[in-house]
Amino acid sequence: MMGVGRCVIAGTWSARTALLFTVLMLGGCASQPGPMPTADGPVARAVGEVDGLEAWVRLQRVFERYEGTPYRYGGTGAAGFDCSGFIRAAFREALGRSLPRTTQAMVAMGVPVARDRLQPGDLVFFNANGKNGHAGIFMGDDRFIHASSSQGVTESSLSNRYWQPRFSQARRLLVPPEVAADDP
Fold this sequence. Notes:
By secondary structure, this protein is an alpha+beta fold. It has a single domain, classed as endopeptidase domain like (from Nostoc punctiforme) (endopeptidase fold (from Nostoc punctiforme), Alpha-Beta Complex). The chain has helices at about 15-25, 45, 50-65, 85-95, 105; strands at about 1-5, 5, 75, 80, 110, 125-130, 130-140, 145-150, 150-155, 165-170. α3 (about 50-65) packs across α4. The longest helix has 15 residues, at about 50-65. The relative contact order is 0.17.
């Protein structure tokens, strides 16, 4: 699959995934469980039962699988995603978490997080038509993954001249293992 500015050959790891695997292997024995999640707490407890780095690796794998999938309003699968459909699929596949179907329902979940405190797995929301009409998953290093209406499933920068002025808020999900209230 071709990515923007890079080529990922089927069956090989991306450079990021390989680097993270190495870090996991070298640091795995030194890790200890952290405190319960708060807006400033570790993503490890915010996104599920996996630690923060493992959550990132799993979300990255889902992204690599769907990268380039076309945008489709109301889409929830490999034939096409809208932004909330992609987020919902990524959390379900990577973290075993069920999220609501709509951006408006997602923005009501979790706790607010300041932009300078974002951690991988946090949801980022953007103003579109005067409301939180677009969302993505923060992946670290100023990057987020999302289903763009012009590019399909892609990775973008929060500092991008289009996204930066539209950034509305971020949420750290403290999602219980149960299915979200409006999950069909």
